[in-house]
Fold this protein.
Amino acid sequence: MNANGGDRVLEVRDLSVSFRTGRGVVRALRHVDMAVPRNKIVGIVGESGCGKSTLINSVLRLLAANAVVGDSSTVLFRGDDVLRMNDRQLRAMRGQKISMVFQDPMTALNPVISIGTQMADILYRLDMTAAGKRERAADMLAQVGIPDPMRRLDDYPHQFSGGMRQRICIAMALMMNPALLIADEPTTALDVTLEAQIIHLMKDLRARFECSMLFVSHNLGLIAELCDEVVVMYAGEVVEQGEVHDLFHRAKHPYTQMLLECDPARIEKASRALPTIQGSVPDLIDLPRGCIFGPRCPKRYEPCDASPPGTYGVNAIHSARCFQVRDA
């Protein structure tokens, strides 16, 4: 990424995460490097199973008990390594300094507790009266566009639409004014009209609260609309990353190029067949010897089968893990 160390809210270095299973060791993430600059939105995009959720769970130290993190891995949040924090430090960080918006607003809220109570509970760290917490909650609902917020604090989740529930989840995530907001596919359960509203809201809130965001999505259009930088993941690796406009117009990794070609928004003529990427994602227990994308890559050549490629710079704001970039 193009930010220097002092301008980064989050910096992930050489992150490798494996899971012990009955079949063997699943190497879910391998040598991941990425960063979130201050007051920027970084998008993570890739197929299901590429490691997006494992990456954000690593940032919050919410990995399953069978997870094994590489010895050289570091996840620096404001200079402190999350992977080496104790329980007290983690509790102080989660929710207060790093917040998360989950992808399904239907299940993210407790159905039997009023919205006001759930929002007030988030402020348990602050020395505020119950009335003060309620006023703060109503103010946050107003900021995300919920009408008549003070009255609606007494309502329950089922009394709100899906779009309003997602707005409530965003309001709850921002109540402690975190330095980093992680949004895990927050528009997946919404229709396209509500999706556009949520994206507009997040752009507005980023400017208003001056917080950095890590935005996870399958939707390339949303990434292009919302994000400043983008990280493309495939089968546990970061295969390409850079400034969003540069990467979308000058993609160098074959996977990124094919992923962009599969975007329905780019189809100019009506067709019965949608473009696809041929082949299957590799078994993360038995990885190919060379490039992870090699078995599916139409541009594969001799170096790709011998060893995994390094990460090579396309320009100052763009890099890709592909031998073609090295040999260009």
User: Anything to note?
Assistant: Residues 122 and 237 are 35 Å apart (CA to CA). The first strand starts at residue 8 and ends at 20.
